[in-house]
Amino acid sequence: MSASAPITQDLVTIPRKLPEGRINLVGLTREALRETLVAHGTPEKQAKMRVAQLWQWIYHRGARDFAEMTNLSKAYRAELARHFTIEIPEVVSKQVSADGTRKYLVRIAGGHEVETVYIPEEGRGTLCISSQVGCTLTCSFCHTGTQKLVRNLTAGEIVGQVMAARDDLDEWPRPGEGMGERPRLISNIVLMGMGEPLYNFENVRDAMQIAMDGEGISLSRRRITLSTSGVVPEIIRCAEEIGCLLAVSFHATTDEVRDRLVPINRKWNIATLLDALRAYPRLSNSERITFEYVMLKDVNDSDADARRLVRLIAGIPAKINLIPFNEWPGAPYERSDWERIEAFADILYKAGYAAPIRTPRGEDIMAACGQLKSATERAKKRRAEIEAEAGL
Ligand code: SAH
Ligand code: SF4
User: 5: number of CA atoms within 13 Å, CB side?
Assistant: First the structure.
């Protein structure tokens, strides 16, 4: 497999047409929505206006029923309902942690399940969304990486997680209420749930364009962070076609250790990854890259590692997010001691980097980073199988 061949090529993509023949409008880009309306009888001349109206209802108001769309004629509403639906994934369970973190188990077409996590903070809130069921990659410290089943989420299933969380938080504007009247509960989105977002690039891009659209969910691109394990060829596309902030799962300072922790490193090593990261801020016009670094006891947490990290990222506008390892049943690692994490952070800080230690959230409900794995899909994949799948 060549370095640029997508690993996602043989994943299943579900058709957009629902069994009863109606088409789900959620997840279509503005252009796709326009074409779909025209193909089902909306006159070309009206199409642009209809897109704007539907868009507002679906993504700004949270409407799920054409009957609610009172600025459309009754006849047109009935016509829409004959051809289309407005469907988002179903939340099958919700767990609320002692710290307020909410974990949603979300069922998507085919009966698969993914997890979405809402993390409330002072004056803001972050929604962590999934992009795939499972993950084709096999980072050895990550629970999701042990999960067998994989399929890409559709754009509708990705933006649908945001819509489902807005439902649960009762965050849609109430009748008569303008934009921005209430502080936003979901003020930030992170693509840090299950899956490697850059192996589902088009769907993630389309979903994030909907999330960023000023007449829809309307989140600034600077409030969306995509986390990648280092899919180098797609990093540039992410800059050019999404323009959101980037986080990279760095986790090690030598290729030898990174090969073990983040096996995609065998395909695109640290030097290749750093080259792509150097180009990112200019291409995406964003400020800094977040380097995620999971703290694993006696594996990657020495002072020498911290100093090597500083040398490696020199010249890249960066912040380093230290993530204390979150344990899961059978995990082959331990979390670094707190003093070790602080000593590591101190070296980075003295070198001029912000190096916050990410406080684990929602640990009591297994909602913390890297703990996500749907209960229906516990089957473990064989390592050889995954590596073959991933072309490693
Ligand atoms: N696949 C993407 C995004 C999802 S993972 C990626 O790898 O970047 C989100 C972050 O959680 C990544 O930095 C990941 O490396 C980290 N992570 C995974 N398992 C973890 C664990 N058990 N403890 C702490 N962080 C973990
Ligand atoms: Fe996949 Fe990210 Fe987990 Fe690695 S850390 S297995 S890329 S979800």
Answer: 9
